[in-house]
Amino acid sequence: MSERRFFLMYDPSFDDMDAEGCPAYGYVMFFDEQDAANYQSGENPDSPAVSMLFTDHKDGQISADLLGWAHLEADIFQQLPLGHFLGLMEQAAQVAIHAGRQVGQVPERLVSSQDSSDEYLQFEVHFSGDEQADPDAEWQLARSLISGRPYLDS
Predict the structure, then answer these.
(1) Source organism's superkingdom (predicted)?
(2) What pLDDT, on the 0 to 100 scale, is given for residue 135?
């Protein structure tokens, strides 16, 4: 059984605000850890990638929008069905926005993993700086994200 991992990097150059003044955060998803590490915010990716926008609406709802694809001819886009990307995008939006609400900072990086025998995605949430260096703060964030599985509410 193999594990598939996706790497979502926060890219503030995509940030936006909707007509109601609700913040939207840009992310670029990569399929390889090295590609994610090499990515420069605001640049066109040199490798296969998907750009997306996560919006935190005033009524508490969270939405995810697909913005575009880079290197659509890559094999990865032929191997995975579109529905898989959309499901991943929706779940990543939930995780990113809920984590951001808890900490007051947009997560810099999300790492999604899924074992081929498991239907659920798991996410690692990474913030920039030392804000999460405190193990107690990390534990509280993890407990609040797990409690009631808020990222599955939409």
Answers:
(1) Bacteria
(2) 66
